Amino acid sequence: MIDELLKPASDDDLRKFANGDSGIQWYRNIAAELLRRREADRWILNDERTPEVDEIVQWTHKSWKRVKEGYLTDTAHLKVWGGEYASVPKGAMWKPMPEPPEST
Predict the structure, then answer these.
(1) What is the C-alpha separation between 22 and 27, in angstroms, rounded?
(2) Closest Cα to residue 71, out of 46, 48, 91, 47?
(3) How many CA atoms lie within 13 A of 1 on its CB side?
(4) Where are the domains of the chain?
(5) For the chain, N or C: smaller number of CB within 10 Å?
């Protein structure tokens, strides 16, 4: 994963970096991408922050013993595949859906 991030996106980027242009910005972009990926892969306690209403995300709870996809129908009502809750269970965590793989 790190190798992929450290590899410049294009030959032009590599030339700029080799000539000293945009070097600091290149590292800033890498750091920003690492932070974005770390945040996207982190489970967020629902009490800390809630997803947008109707945004399909991954949900989990210690009593479920698995990950479920679902969404909030309003600020408290949770629908998950295989169930429905009048309120989000205390201790429920969520994270954004992963990005689909790039087509080849």
Answers:
(1) 9
(2) 46
(3) 4
(4) 2-40, 44-96
(5) C
In the structure, what pLDDT confidence band is assigned to residue 2 with cuts at 50, 70 and 90?
Answer: low
**Termini Cα distance of the chain:** 18
Closest CA to 56 of 100, 94, 102: 94
Span 46-51, mean pLDDT? 91
Radius of gyration of the chain (CA): 19
DSSP 32-53: HHHHHHHHHTS-EETTT--PPT
The separation between CA 95 and the C-alpha centre of its own chain, rounded to angstroms, equals 6
List 67's β-bridge partners, or say none.
60
pLDDT interval class at 57 (50, 70, 90):
very high
Alpha carbons 93 and 67: distance in angstroms, whole number: 10
